[in-house]
């Protein structure tokens, strides 16, 4: 009995020492989207701010595919020692296991550390098109064939829902994230597209037709919302996550680092450059927030049947 107590005490001391020493090697920050999009753009600056706050090095590694499912699945199976974390969007993180039978993770396999910012989810096009508003796009679609970027996942479902409601047909052109969508749109390969916010980096080269956020867009507050038009909206929150087994001590250090990163001047500047609002959500609130998002998306799926 005494030996077991002694062993437990040693194990507890070792665990506490390990948490105190963390990070003792570079941390990998997984971005589950292709390089060049807004998630990757933010992550490159966020990683430096996190490293500064943690007193270590944070290295970004992209693992794109399946609407973020490839990268998030990789994270869910990583060693829960705090040396592999991810920066992604909460919407697709929840949407993928809700809608895809082949997704190899559940939300319960992950630990939500904190919310960081809000994507500016929009339907966009270029100003050279014969339509400048959503109503004009829909009217033009009645008599003209149009191509739309197909990034899969939640955005594809929402766009298909709009098309069905408006009785129009759009040809989907596969694109991998905002990094591939932009050259397709600017190069004329597609006519319009879903954007997670990357359009805001391109000034007057792109225009907004509609917002997928329930409360509208920061830069384009007058754009019509899918919530008002169709009664459905996407969650736009970006989050930092880890595998579920990460210790409370490491999770607390990561949360404190996120909060510090929110005030980092370089990270603040990159958010201003792409015009993304900050949306910090602490760990004490984020699980309840994710549960409300899940309920909302389940409602969306029910309305689409």
Short structural description:
Helices cover about 45% and strands about 20% of the residues. The protein is of the alpha/beta class. The longest helix has 21 residues, at about 285-305.
Alpha plus pi helix count = 11
Class by SSE composition: alpha/beta
The side-by-side strand order for the widest beta sheet comes to 2-1-3-10-4-11
CATH topology of the largest domain: D-Maltodextrin-Binding Protein, domain 2
CATH superfamily of the largest domain: Bordetella uptake gene, domain 1
Number of strands: 11
Low-confidence runs of at least 5 consecutive residues: 1-17
Helix content: 40-55%
- Largest sheet geometry: 6 strands, mixed
Taking all residues together, what is the mean pLDDT? 92
Looking at the overall shape, the CATH architecture of the largest domain is 3-Layer(aba) Sandwich
The proportion of strand residues reads 15-25%
- Overall tally of structural domains: 2
Q: What would you report as the Rg, rounded to the nearest angstrom?
A: 21 Å
